[in-house]
Automatic annotation (TrEMBL):
Residues 311-334, 486-505 are annotated as: Disordered. It comes from Neorhizobium alkalisoli. This is AAA+ ATPase domain-containing protein. It comes from the Bacteria. Residues 24-311 form the AAA+ ATPase domain.
Amino acid sequence: MQVGIDMGKLAGGDPAKLDIEELLATRLLVQGNSGSGKSHLLRRLLEQSAPWVQQVVIDPEGDFVTLSDKFGHVVVDGERTEAELAGIANRIRKNRVSCVLTLEGLDLEEQMRAAAAFLNGMFDADREFWYPVLVVVDEAQMFAPSVGGDVSEDARKMSLGAMTNLMCRGRKRGLAGVIATQRLAKLAKNVAAEASNFLMGRTFLDIDMARAADLLGMDRRQAEMFRDLKRGNFVALGPALSRRPLPIAIGHVETGARSSSPKLMPLPDAPQDVEDLIFTPDPEEFTRPLAPRRANPAPRPTTDILAELSRSTPAASPAPQEARVPQPEMSPEEREERLAAVLNEILDDPQSAYRTDSVLYQDFLVRARMRRLPGPPLALGDFRRRVAVARSGVDVETAAGEKWQLVLSLSNNVADDLQGVFLMMAKAAIGGEPCPSDARIARAYGTHSARRARRLLGYFEEQGLIVVHADFSGKRIVAFPDLQSETAPGSADALDEGETKAAAE
């Protein structure tokens, strides 16, 4: 069904139509400096398309919550745990309900984690619920930054991964990304590059004007026009809008934001005794209690937060002794066996290779609590180590050997996110197995990029951990000098058996 919604007026006065069905397949990027009318444009798009398609809005400032009054959007407060947000997002898809995720009041890192958990929850919905959804992300440069900032690397990777999934892989799952940013230079290029429709508004920096002109296929000399655009005016291009760049004036909206642009107001007449009015204290000021000044707390490590969430009851308010469920007595061997079983359940999912360690760790803690495993929860660092060893596919006999102990010792010099790849390659070398293909290495790293897999091998070789060479037929061999072992020849272009089996099932 083809539906064209009215976004405003073209230069000649004709209505500017946007094809919603085409937009769902090709995605949209909106760019403009603060005050150019981006939020107004998004509101017009949401209002006009509300009767036709389910909508989800990632709202960092709480400006779009007013959509609930007229169009019935459910407002989801971002001040929840990541597990709660993922569950809500999954139910949003199942029940096809439009919603606004408001992140107002959270600091930047909390906003990034909340948005990532919500987007991942929508992305991981079962195939039977892959209905079309318009996913609007305002201030997208916050959630997909081009460079690292003041937030932790884990939060940045989690948020950037969720935005990349939305724009790169979301179409097959029915997720159509509409992202708005103040500056193209601050937005990750692999996220911006997936959009096929563009609405470019007023901007002043040369680098942003040049990128906007490149995306619209315009001459660099024409980029100056973006400085002259009025508020609410954009240049449109894309299969859902126009086959050539056209100026559009965005139409009026029915709802309003809670925040608005500053307006000039006349100052009141100054009283004659203005100095006495200012410097004479009110008697009530001495009786009014002063609000305590809160110091900004230091950021808490992710491991501490996740460990706290794993407790069955808060430490500050223990449950009455008679109401507690007694923990079952369990030998260390039995506990270790159950921990391994829980870990295997998680890793058996083919999609687990593409989820962040934090998401997998949350799932692990929940499953461990459900099985009432006694003792302190497994730390995130230990969990990552176990995941890396499990993904390497090492058997019991090999794991008990001296060479594998040397491998584990060498892996201590490898970054946490690279240990899975290193251990998998070392296991193949110890067993004389064929060298893993680029696809298999990429999956072990949590990506689909064969080019990144080859870069990882180059990195290991630069660190002196491996030596990569080829046999006479051109097949790849990876040698480990410290182990005095090397893999058998293997084709770098071979398909990944794990993904092939998953696709067949």
